[in-house]
From TrEMBL:
PANTHER family: K(+)_H(+) ANTIPORTER SUBUNIT KHTT (PTHR30445:SF8). InterPro entries: AAE_transporter (IPR050144), KhtT (IPR026278), KhtT-like_N (IPR058776), RCK_C (IPR006037), RCK_C_sf (IPR036721). PROSITE patterns: RCK_C (PS51202). It comes from the Bacteria. Coiled coil: none annotated. This is Cation:proton antiporter regulatory subunit. SUPFAM superfamilies: TrkA C-terminal domain-like (SSF116726). It comes from Microbacterium kribbense. Residues 75-159 form the RCK C-terminal domain. Pfam families: KhtT_N, TrkA_C.
Length: 162
């Protein structure tokens, strides 16, 4: 896989992602802020097979989906390579006593020996959240730790401290 940047004078910039299989996917960012996705013909890399204009919101959502997926997959790969270390996505229940409070209020690391590495909110990833990060209904807490620690963290976030 490689990425190529192509300046399009007077138009904008095109970034081409050439996949391991040789397929070419382009993202064109026009000078006016518009964006377009393009898929090139497998047999003729200069021939655009299909293109799709996307709005700024759609581009942002795609970026969020890819970054959330990438962050979680990297953590999952790390835990697969390490015995006894697990990654878990813990959905914050709607009746959690921590909704509207900060991540620091949970004292998750102190109470469960689990590290919170991200919060996923509305398909956006908040990587390495600080203790001041406010928790909201619908948040998903991405955590790393032992299996007993992750189970304890899920109970803590659902029910509060014992």
């Amino acid at each position: 896989m490689r990425i190529e940047k192509v300046d399009l004078p007077g138009i904008g910039i095109r970034h081409d992602l050439i996949t391991e299989s040789g397929r070419r996917l382009a993202v064109v960012r026009y000078r006016d802020g518009e964006r377009e996705l393009a898929l090139y013909d497998a047999d003729d890399p200069d021939s655009c097979k299909e293109s799709l204009r996307i709005s700024e919101d759609e581009a942002e959502s795609l970026a969020d989906l890819f970054s959330a997926s990438l962050a979680v997959s990297r953590l999952t790969k790390l835990t697969e390579e390490t015995d006894g270390l697990y990654t878990d996505k813990i959905a914050l229940p709607s009746d959690s006593p921590f909704i509207g409070r900060t991540l620091g209020d949970t004292k998750t690391r102190t109470r469960t020996h689990v590290s919170v590495v991200a919060v996923i909110r509305d398909r956006r990833v908040i990587a390495s959240p600080t203790p001041d990060e406010m928790l909201h209904e619908g948040d998903v807490i991405v955590s790393v730790g032992t299996r007993p620690g992750l189970d304890a963290a899920a109970r803590l976030l659902a029910d509060g401290p014992e």
